[in-house]
Amino acid sequence: MPRPIPIQTRSKPIYNNCSVYSPEGTLMFRCSMKKIKWYLDRDLARPYTPPTSDSIRNSERGEETGFGEEESVPQSIILLFTPKGSGRVNEGEEWYLEERMEVCVVCGLSPSSASSTDPTTPPNNAPPSAHGSAGASGGLTLHHIIPHTYTQHFPLPYKSHSSHDILPLCIPCHLTYEARVSLPLRRRIADEFGVGLEGGPWVREEGVGRVRSAARALIGVKVGKIPEFRKAELEAIVRDHLGLENHDPIPAETLAPLTMLEPLMRAPTYTSHGESVVRKLLDGCVNPEEERERVEGFVRMWRKMFLEVMGPRFLEGSWRVGDVVGVVNGNGGVQG
Fold first, then answer.
1. Which of 141, 68, 75, 144 is nearest to 111 (CA)?
2. Which residues of 167-198 are buried (b: 16+ CB within 10 A; e: fewer)?
3. What's the N-to-C CA distance of the chain in angstroms?
4. Across the chain, which distance is largest between two alpha carbons, in Å?
5. Neighbours of 29 (CB within 10 A)
6. Nearest to 88 by CA among 164, 151, 16, 32
């Protein structure tokens, strides 16, 4: 049985809660310290102290994040050029402007409580994790509410500058979401679109199955009970596959890899499950409005299931099922 793939947790803070303001002093979007430094290094912005109490909270939090060389990077900047877009100021984009807590949005686990021996007292006034000490052992992951297998095939406007549906979850909540939401919904989508979860088409490579069976027999526990004539037949199959001459010894180290051969191969026309679903989803769209309607319907179906099944108690109230998907008229991006 293959070993489960370990889930990677974040070793650095997920949210820096840095702020970018327009030349007029309007908050455009939140970003990372790396992005702030990018603007400053190119003389596209200058440090800025917004005329609100947010600046006090930002400076206090900056002392706690421990970003090493980035500690000197200001928490807020104001652009020195007129941007092509207006940022995240449209209706349905309010979530992008909010400060976010470094906690699992479902149960409230924080990175500090995950490494603490007492998970009942998380820092920053975050509530304790519902998992107790069991949930406090793995830190946070950045989880795609809509699986990447679909979103990677979306048209660019629906996956560019979009973090709305990538949220922090602890490992127990991540696994619960996969089992109770992601897998059942992907199976339903596979049925509705007539696309198998394994993608396709697949072709069977002739002879590979025989080679695999022969190798398994030759290193199996019952190899001593195989009649000599049958053993010779099995060895001949393996030699032919390896390009060896008759009666050449078969290197022992070559047999184990042969037992793992897969007789089914991807056909030249193979298409993954996600790509096939998105193709069928958008097939026949006659204009950009219809395309947006279909993509938004698909995305909001996942958002709705996430809220209904997982009940995220620590997700900002401005995160809504009906929020904008991707960017509208290119306003999400800001360029110099």
1. 141
2. bbbbbbbbebbbeebbeebbeebbeeeebeee
3. 52
4. 89
5. 23
6. 164
Euclidean distance between CA atoms 27 and 287, whole angstroms: 33
Give tens-digit pLDDT for 86-128.
Answer: 787 777 788 888 888 899 999 999 886 655 434 333 334 444 4
> Which pTM does this prediction carry?
0.72
Q: In the chain, which residues have pLDDT < 70?
A: 1-6, 52-71, 112-138, 161, 328-336
pLDDT of residue 50: 86
Answer for the pair 278, 153: CB distance below 8 angstroms, yes or no. yes
Q: Which residues contact 301 (CB under 8 A, 6 or more apart)?
A: 185
Residues written for the chain: 336
The one-letter code for the residue type at 122 is P
The H or E element that residue 97 is part of is none
Instruction: For residue range 23-67, list pLDDT tens digits in order.
Output: 999 999 998 899 999 999 999 999 999 886 454 444 444 443 434
One-letter amino acid of 194: G
Joined tokens for residue 233: 């037949």
